[in-house]
Design brief:
Blueprint lengths: L7 E7 L5 H16 L7 E7 L5 E4 L2 E4 L2 E2 L9 E4 L12 H13 L2 E4 L3 H7 L7 E2 L6 H7 L4 E2 L5 E4 L2 E4 L4 H14 L1 H11 L14 H5 L5 H12 L7 H7 L4 H12 L3 H19 L4 H7 L5 H12 L3 H8 L2
Parallel strand pairs: 1-2, 1-6, 2-5, 6-7, 7-11, 8-9
Antiparallel strand pairs: 3-4, 10-11
Helix pairs in contact: 1-5, 1-6, 5-6, 9-10, 11-14
Length: 324
């Protein structure tokens, strides 16, 4: 991709009590891109408060922002909304919703980091779009804004001019993607190395592992079933077999499992098998067919199709890229 040498204006909207890393993670990527570009100011960044005033509380610090949405300012090339633990109040900021709708119609691209997606949703900017957010709040985002298509297991999602990222540090992945789109892969990788972050996670790489998901469920039967699945990936893990083991009907198991974990039993099984395969590919030289058998895929072709569908790359390329 040919680099674009024209400076781009990046605005990060900062809600009250914003998650500080939602702000500073992407901001540091853009600042470092300018620093690493040999003195060329490839990005002009600014922080914008969504309320009147120039100070925003972000976690344990007070942040002095450049301006608020009530101040006049020129056009932006990119607008990102940072997340906040207080995202449940997103719909109470009517002026911010109006400002977002106006700006979204003007900027080439806009988006959110983590729970910043709730503020876009309140403004009606997620309707009809594929989006993501922090895995822990994906189900709530889908329930609150049903016109959005929430993908809970994505690091970031691009849908037209809209870019949304998963939780907290995923904002760095999103910012690196924007740098690559703007100025080429070489600068993006240079920035990643300088910040000592993972060079580039695929957009479809899972936000969280099946082992972490197994810790989420509070319903004893579901939690026990999750752990059994993790220990028996080569077994018959069809929905009927899982329902029988849990002493539940298929319909009830699906309903309770989805409510507890945010995914269906079938999706959980596939994610667990994918997790196990990824670990073997990263840490061993086990042949692909044996990896597929150990992890319950049955054959290497089924495993390959699952990898391509869920993380956007095949097992062979995944091993080449992520092998320890």
């Amino acid at each position: 991709m040919k680099a674009d040498t024209q400076s781009k204006r990046i605005a990060i909207a900062v809600p009250p009590n914003a998650q500080s890393l939602d702000v500073f993670g992407p901001l540091d990527v853009f600042v470092e891109a300018t620093r690493q570009s040999g003195g060329t100011a490839v990005y002009d960044t600014c922080l914008v408060a969504i309320e009147k005033g120039s100070v925003v509380r972000t976690g344990g610090v007070s942040l002095l922002v450049d301006k608020s949405i009530y101040d006049s300012d020129g056009p932006y090339d990119t607008l990102l909304v940072a997340g906040s633990p207080d995202f449940s109040h997103a719909e109470s900021y009517a002026d911010f919703q109006q400002w977002l709708r106006q700006r979204a119609a003007e900027v080439p691209r806009y988006g959110s980091v983590c729970t910043g997606a709730f503020f876009l949703g309140a403004a009606g900017l997620l309707d009809g779009r594929n989006v993501t957010t922090h895995w822990q709040h994906a189900a709530e985002l889908a329930a609150r804004y049903p016109a959005a298509r929430v993908e809970p297991d994505q690091i970031y999602v691009k849908d037209g001019p809209l870019y949304t990222s998963a939780g907290v540090t995923a904002g760095i992945d999103l910012a690196l993607r924007l740098v690559e789109d703007d100025h080429g892969r070489e600068l993006a990788l240079t920035v990643a190395r300088r910040l000592v972050v993972f060079l580039k996670r695929p957009g479809g790489q899972s936000q969280f592992s099946a082992h972490l998901a197994a810790q989420i469920a509070s319903e004893t039967r579901i939690q026990s079933l999750q752990h059994w699945i993790l220990d028996n990936l080569g077994a018959n893990l069809s929905i009927a077999a899982l329902a029988k083991r849990a002493a539940m009907s298929v319909r009830n198991l699906t309903r309770v499992f989805l409510g507890e974990t945010g995914v269906t039993p079938t999706d959980y099984v596939e994610a667990a098998r994918l997790d196990a395969a990824r670990r073997l590919l990263e840490d061993t030289d086990v042949p692909l067919q044996r990896v597929a058998s150990r992890c319950g895929f049955g054959n290497a072709d089924t495993m390959r199709r699952t990898f391509l569908r869920r993380i956007g790359t095949g097992p062979h390329d995944y091993r080449a890229r992520f092998r320890s």
